[in-house]
Amino acid sequence: APKADPLDLAGIDDLLSPEEKAVRAAVRQVCDSAIDPYVADWFESGDLPVIRELTKELGSLGLLGMHLEGYGCAGMSAVDYGLACLELEASDSGIRSLVSVQGSLAMYAIWRHGSEEQKQEWLPRMASGDAIGCFGLTEPDHGSDPGSMRTRARRDGGDWVLDGTKLWITNGSVAEVAVVWAQTDEGVRGFVVPTATPGFAAHTIKHKMSLRASVTSELVLDSVRLPESAVLPEVRGLGGPLSCLNEARYGILWGAMGAARSAFRSALAYAGERSQFGRPIGGFQLTQAKLAQMAVELTNGTLLALHLGRRKDAVGLRPEQVSLGKLNNVTKALEICRTSRTILGANGISLEYPVIRHMNNLESVLTYEGTPEMHTLVIGQALTGQAAFR
Ligand code: TGC
Ligand code: FAD
């Protein structure tokens, strides 16, 4: 049998078509040239200064809303989209977040639930990266339980008026458009809010120790008046935002394996180069046990991602299947990063290596898009028929 790539010991690559490998290579190329040389600096400065240029570059490659059909979107498969997320997150979770929020949350909400007019107005500009979108569901007092949200939209004549606060919103202060979910007399509804609308304000959140190469914001809606045409017409209830979360969580379950691969690659190289007690640390059984365990989890998580991707393309996914992937892959990716960090010793805490950056980023990825506890309860409900959320 041929010798395997240490980063793909099981030979999962053989399960990909030449076209899928080409998509992956194209994404890797842009990551190598436009992201990897700079991302540690962005992380260190806690900023993404090139967000507009980068978003346009990602758009020109067809990576924004890449799994959506029409309106300037690339119409690629779920597996293609997953492979792109993996490569982007191998560079940095913050960059994959930019793409997730744009394509799977903001664009998907409009694509799936929007009017023809909303789609024509926003999707082509968002696909090209000329307009950045954000997705406001979480509030200061309602994270895991978005159904209790306090942001409210009331009808006033022919208009809607929105009041409330959203917190932890990726891309909030750089977005041209915000998809905002609000409580109404008809249940939760979604609104397409141009961020230049009077009464809308966004403030960047500082002092994050995670996802630093990503803009995270508070949105304040103070009597934001919108025409009737701003409401997403096709959906009422919490199922609206949750349908978008399924899409983003799917991308994350692939992406996390990218962060893990990057950390593992660093640890494997370091184990070969670093000597203590007169031999490479990779020669010690304790180091080998760590490397072997990481290779097993990287293989398992990547196989699970590919399986869920093939299934999504063939028949679609149930929410609990997405939860299974998000829970397992992000948890295991974080473990891989932490173990890799130990192999690098003191260098493991330095931004000279990507490991602690990925590790810290994954703390956000673990919490956003449903905490491990929420996904455990979703799986528990699917297994038992009993909802244990409240
Ligand atoms: P529950 O009563 O179970 O459901 C309410 C309605 O929604 C339907 N539903 C779903 N529909 C589509 N997809 C899903 N995954 C769905 N889950 C439930 C359900 O059938 C019901 O429909 P109907 O017609 O009967 O009304 O709702 P609940 O209030 O008990 O909550 C369930 C729970 C806890 C699982 C849910 O609220 C949840 O997932 N909480 C976590 C919140 C979360 O993940 N927030 C993420 C915010 S966005 C973000 O983090 C972006 S990060 C940036 C990046 O991605 O990079
Ligand atoms: P809480 O819900 O307060 O949870 C705190 C703890 O209590 C968690 O461990 C949780 O699992 C546990 N817990 C809660 N309920 C239960 C229960 N029933 N049983 C057991 N344990 C429970 N949101 C958006 O809408 N849009 C975005 O773009 C976005 N981007 C984000 C970017 C970053 C960097 C971060 C960190 C978050 C972002 N979020 C975004 C918010 C994210 O989705 C929420 O942080 C997440 O849903 C958890 O909500 P919370 O932080 O309020 O925690």
Automatic annotation (TrEMBL):
Pfam families: Acyl-CoA_dh_1 (PF00441), Acyl-CoA_dh_M (PF02770), Acyl-CoA_dh_N (PF02771). The keyword Oxidoreductase applies. Residues 237-383 form the Acyl-CoA dehydrogenase/oxidase C-terminal domain. Keywords: FAD, Flavoprotein, Oxidoreductase, Transit peptide. GO terms for molecular function: fatty-acyl-CoA binding; flavin adenine dinucleotide binding; glutaryl-CoA dehydrogenase activity. This is Acyl-CoA dehydrogenase. Its cofactor is FAD. One of its GO terms (biological process) is fatty-acyl-CoA biosynthetic process. It comes from the Bacteria. Belongs to the acyl-CoA dehydrogenase family. Residues 134-224 form the Acyl-CoA oxidase/dehydrogenase middle domain.
